[in-house]
What does this fold into?
Amino acid sequence: MIQVEHLVKRYGGRTAVEDLTFTLEPGGIYGFLGPNGAGKSTTMNVMTGYVAADGGRVVIDGHDILRNPIAAKSCIGYLPEVPPLYTDMTVREFLLFAAQLKLVPKRERKEQVETLLEKLSLSEVSGRLIRNLSKGYKQRVGLAQALVGNPKVLILDEPMVGLDPKQIIEMRELIKSLAGEHTVILSSHILSEVSAVCDHILILSRGKLMASGSPEELQRMMQGGTTLSVTVIGEQEQAKAVLAQMEEVEQYQFDAGEEEGSIVIRIETKEDTDIRKALSVALAGAGMPILSMSRSERSLEDIFLELTAAEAETIEEDEVQDEAESDLGNDNIQTNDMGAENEDEIEDESETEGGESDESDL
It folds into this structure.
């Protein structure tokens, strides 16, 4: 459905997206996850055709967004972080206007709008001016305009931003209900939002794709070995004899248990192994009753922080090296060259200001 190949986007001297490649299958809910400035919104703007890439290509349902933009854009419904609403219109007027802009056949517009009003629970406010609606209702109206024309792909940039907890839950359910009929892509810097809604997560940092997979796959990919904490009744020598027979055990240590006659065994196992069942049988066979057993796993938050922190450290090291090289070069700069340098900086700033706009037309 969607192919992004070696995508590059720069604003002046800053690279916002660097050699980004991924493929999204039809009907899924995909989440772009990353800290602020990771390149999520830039990637979405390029995918919608609002911003031109400096390299690579984007193909939507077989249509190249650069070579065949009209056909590609007809497949996309877009909800930017700030919904593009005409606040002096009523909800129904605005959606009918959006249907006209998206070239929905005239005979189908009214029926399609009424269906969307019902589907997004907007019927009761359909006659109200958009300016008088709450933040949550405005987000629903923005989502409704993205759905006008029944696009195959929905791109949602921070769709839960500014919503209260009840509205966030409602928006999650709305987005989940769209899966299958639409391919949904949403961005967020909040992991709980992405993991609660998405089937597949793409973690971005500094414009690069750091990891990609389902929440479960990401956990397995980054998990490494597992740590077990087992409290049993018995002696350390008995436990050592049991553990010596299990090849999956990497290492272990003992602590005194709180209950009389008990010991706590902390076991580290090899990657992608689960020895809990076999360990239970072996300890029971050795006459060592198990009082408790717990398994520690890294959360998605741990994985996210590790991936993004590692990239940030690499970037920081590169910046320090670049700064040192720049300082050496500055020793050779003549006074009469400063004017040309300032002109380059002004030009770079102008390019940046012209390229970073997040506003969007319907």
